[in-house]
Design a protein that fits this description.
19% strand; globular; alpha/beta; 5-stranded mixed β-sheet; single chain
């Protein structure tokens, strides 16, 4: 082989190596799933206060192929100026926005800390874009997007409308759509007295998501097998 051809082959091999995606990035088409839960003072993301936000990032074991919780962060958040506080919503969550012991911070501060962590973990995993995982994900994503817009944050690491909804996944995999019942079906401990806090619900949703994804892999659903190669 001519020397120039040999050099070209080595360079192409190097370029191909650079383009090889991490196992994490391969699993979700370059998306980095981040499990989120919010507690709010109502159902309207444009008018009602965001009071709590928690997020769990995930770890992929390169040996076993299983996902697990890597790190979780949680924020108590001050209602934004002019925010609506629905009494029934506060009664349901048990949150008192006026309690000074909450240690609440502004939305802007919470989002900047969250986004910084997500970008760092996403880059380490070799992924290009974060995607929200939540139970009834449209609700949580709506509040996250609304807070991002209120804070005039131009670049969010999260996809603005794509999400993974554990309600749908649990309905398919476990025959349950309520978070508590889905966790019980998956043999994940669930304490109803601790539910409806962003931290608790986020970690239980993360455990549920990991259970479903890991179980799907164990049953042979991932990695996908090329039928032509198999035959």
């Amino acid at each position: 082989m001519p020397e120039s051809s040999s050099i070209d082959t080595q360079q192409n091999a190097h370029l191909n190596t650079d383009k090889v995606k991490s196992k994490f990035a391969q699993r979700f088409r370059g998306y980095f799933p981040v499990v989120i839960d919010v507690e709010t003072a109502g159902f309207n993301s444009q008018t009602d206060a965001l009071l709590e936000l928690a997020a769990s990032v995930l770890h992929l074991d390169e040996v076993t192929g299983d996902f697990s919780i890597d790190e979780t962060i949680q924020f108590n958040i001050e209602p934004f100026e002019g925010a609506n506080l629905e009494p029934k919503a506060l009664e349901f969550t048990g949150i008192d926005p006026t309690n000074p012991l909450r240690g609440a911070i502004d939305e802007d501060e919470a989002l900047k800390v969250l986004f910084k962590m997500v970008r760092k973990k996403m880059k380490a995993a070799g992924c290009q874009r974060a995607i929200i995982v939540a139970h009834n994900a449209a609700f949580d994503l709506g509040f996250l997007n609304a807070a991002t817009e209120r804070c005039n944050i131009k670049r969010s690491p999260f996809h603005s409308f794509v999400s993974f909804d554990t309600t749908t996944l649990a309905g398919l995999a476990l025959g349950q759509t309520v978070l508590a019942k889905a966790c019980i079906a998956a043999k994940i401990d669930f304490n109803n007295s601790e539910a409806h806090s962003a931290l608790y619900d986020t970690e239980k949703t993360a455990e549920l998501f990991c259970h479903i994804v890991n179980r799907w892999r164990a049953l042979g659903g991932w990695p996908l097998v090329d039928e032509e190669t198999e035959s």
